[in-house]
Amino acid sequence: MIDLSGFISISGQPGLFKIIAQSKTGIIVEGLHDKKRSNVYASTKVSTLSDISMFTTGEDKPIEEIMTSIFEKEKGGPAVDQKADDKTIVAYFAAILPEYDKERVYVSNMRKLLTWYNALQSTGNLKTKEENKDADGKAINLKAEEKSAVKKGPVKEQNKAKAVAGVKKTAGVRKTGTA
Hints:
The chain is α+β, with helices and mostly antiparallel strands. It has helices spanning 63-74, 86-96, 107-122, 144-152, and strands spanning 7-10, 17-22, 26-31, 37-41, 46-48, 53-54, 61-62, 132-133, 139-140. The protein contains four helices and nine strands, in the order βββββββαααββα. The longest helix is centred in the middle third of the chain and has 16 residues, at 107-122.
């Protein structure tokens, strides 16, 4: 399955972004095409691609699975151009996901998915999720915390002051007087 963790779409801005780091006021992202870094504030509406799914006649299908089927159909190449006519887009999408809900999935949704797929494909960011194999050859999915624990070994406890539940820590701010 295609790994979409770390990629986001920002409301009001074209294209996809990759999460680089976290800042005090939000997150630092890098545009996939222009490689420009910018700060995205916590109040901005952001959607992670791994959390998005599309309506089907049964359960909703995550776009990770849909992009995986596009990747397999195209053998890693680019998908149909998102600027093609509506009939071409609908026919292509029906071949990829035949059980999509025809009343709730619009052509604009299909175009956006194809735009995202082509953006990830052209920048070389379509990567499959790594699965670890055990001795029997069965696939084992380890969580990120378990992977880091396996690599680093036992975790040492550090002497840091912990905040009491419900108490907000304010570093370097003195509250005096009334407002």
